[in-house]
Design brief:
Helices cover about 25% and strands about 35% of the residues. The chain has about 350 residues and is of the alpha+beta class. Keywords: Membrane, Transmembrane, Transmembrane helix.
């Protein structure tokens, strides 16, 4: 899912940046005649109208031509830039810089001059649009899309910043728990943020592999209670009995469930240890234990909070060494309270 999420995010980022790049380079040239400065009078004064040519794009427009209805006689009275000329019914503007506008004042005997009498506006690179009023001129496409993108991306960016901060925090905590991971423990994300974690130092973990025994290490009268139902199925030569010590340093009962993650036997075993005390849980490893790693999955319960899929891995060489080391030792297996569950629970 992480890979798919990264692909989707990357694809959306490419699409959005490409769209902004396209919109940013769109040329936007507009013309409108919004204001009549002076109305034709009986004393001989002609009407004076204002024409506004706007470059809303992000590039310079050159050689702009404003075509006026040929039936209208007019003269240029003034302009906001010096390079504005009249050629017949055409008003020529040499250059309009990006996000800028040029104002042209014309005098005419026509009293109904407006945007309808402006036939077209164009430059070397684009054919513009004549707008009825200045309100009809759109915003800059590139900047508007960028602003919308920034607004829409605020939430996902905040989410990813939160994820990065959490990832960095987890990595820092992982470094602190290096002694624990060195002992073969993994999938500790939930443990790092749990109440259980608060009761242990960076060098400690609630469970540790204390011994690896064989079936012959137990006498007939010292078979662990949790293994009695399956004792006859345990091979005395090939199978190993992993004995884990549970150290409950909390002020509440600690429940621990364990079962072999790989291999044929996946029966779960459960032990509940009283506050500030220790217990033992035994997980049998059946079949060939000298090939590949053995993984035991643990679930912890504290105050109705379950921590799942915490895995302890033991390589075959270490397992064999511990079996040989403990071969001369015995354990009655009766000093703990553990019970087998009927079926696995993940």
């Amino acid at each position: 899912m992480d890979v798919l999420e990264n692909i989707i995010v990357a694809s959306l980022a490419i699409v959005m940046t490409s769209l902004i790049a396209v919109l940013y380079h769109i040329r936007q040239l507009y013309a409108t005649a919004p204001v009549m400065f002076q109305k034709k009078s009986d004393s001989g004064y002609d009407s004076v109208f204002q024409i506004v040519v706007t470059n809303r794009g992000n590039q310079v427009e050159e050689n702009i031509e404003l075509e006026i209805d040929p039936s209208i006689t007019f003269e240029i009275v003034a302009a906001s830039v010096p390079d504005v000329t009249k050629d017949g019914s055409t008003v020529r503007i040499e250059r309009i810089h990006r996000k800028n506008e040029v104002i042209v004042l014309i005098s005419t005997t026509e009293i109904h001059f407006g945007s309808a009498t402006i036939l077209s506006v164009s430059s070397n690179n684009v054919s513009g649009r004549v707008c009825k009023t200045p309100k009809d001129i759109p915003f800059n496409y590139g900047m508007t899309s960028l602003a919308i993108l920034l607004l829409l991306s605020a939430f996902p960016v905040g989410y990813y910043i939160y994820q990065v901060a959490g990832y960095v925090g987890d990595k820092v905590d992982e470094e602190k728990l290096a002694p624990v991971t060195k002992e073969g423990w993994s999938n500790l994300d939930e443990y790092q943020e749990s109440d259980l974690r608060k009761s242990y130092s960076d060098q400690e973990f609630p469970v540790r592999l204390s011994q690896v025994k064989k079936k012959q290490d137990y006498g007939n009268d010292s078979v662990p209670v949790s293994l009695k139902d399956e004792w006859d199925n345990i091979d005395k030569d090939k199978d190993a009995l992993l004995q884990y010590e549970i150290n409950n340093k909390t002020a509440d009962n600690l429940g621990v469930m364990a079962y072999r993650r790989n291999g044929n036997a996946t029966r779960p075993y459960f032990a509940e240890v009283s506050p500030l005390s220790k217990g033992v849980i035994i997980v049998p490893v059946t079949g060939q234990t000298d090939s590949g790693n053995v993984q035991v999955e643990f679930l912890f319960r504290l105050n109705d909070e379950w921590l799942e899929k915490i895995v302890h891995s033991i390589d075959a060489q270490k397992l064999q060494e511990m079996k040989n080391e403990d071969a001369s030792k015995t354990d009655g297996g009766q000093s703990f309270k553990a019970r087998k569950l009927a079926s696995p629970s993940k």
